[in-house]
Amino acid sequence: MSELPLIFAALSEPTRFAIVERLMAEGELPAGAFLDDFDISAPAISRHLNVLSNAGLVTKRVNRQQRLYSARPETIGVVSAWAMGHREFWENSLKRLELALQQEMERK
């Protein structure tokens, strides 16, 4: 789980989060496909893609002049597993709270 801070840091920026969302929805895309999505330059898109790549969220494949990016399902799975583990914690905590409240109401 040591990669989680790096993953969350990369996803915390709205442009990068949107890039990952689009890659997950549409599959592999060239870097230039994101230029119309944001009001930023091609070098800025490239920097965002590099951050995502360094965090393990996307992979890059070179096809002649194109740089093609795709989301890495295994990294998304790490995030999902972490979230589901915390969901279970909160559900159990809320169940314990509900039980304690019911017991308190029965005493009154």
How would you summarize the topology of this molecule?
Blueprint lengths: L3 H8 L2 H13 L2 E2 L11 H13 L3 E6 L2 E6 L1 H35 L1
Antiparallel strand pairs: 1-3, 2-3
Describe the overall structure.
With 108 residues, the protein is an alpha+beta fold. It has one domain (4-106): Orthogonal Bundle (Arc Repressor Mutant, subunit A), CATH 1.10.10. The chain contains 4 helices and 3 strands. The protein has helices spanning 4-11, 14-26, 42-54, 73-107, and strands at 29-30, 58-63, 66-71. A 3-stranded antiparallel β-sheet has the order 1-3-2. A hairpin with a 2-residue loop joins strand 2 (58-63) and strand 3 (66-71). Helix 2 (14-26) packs across helix 3 (42-54). The protein is elongated, with a radius of gyration of 20 Å. It starts with a helix and ends with a helix. The model has no long low-confidence stretch (mean pLDDT 91).
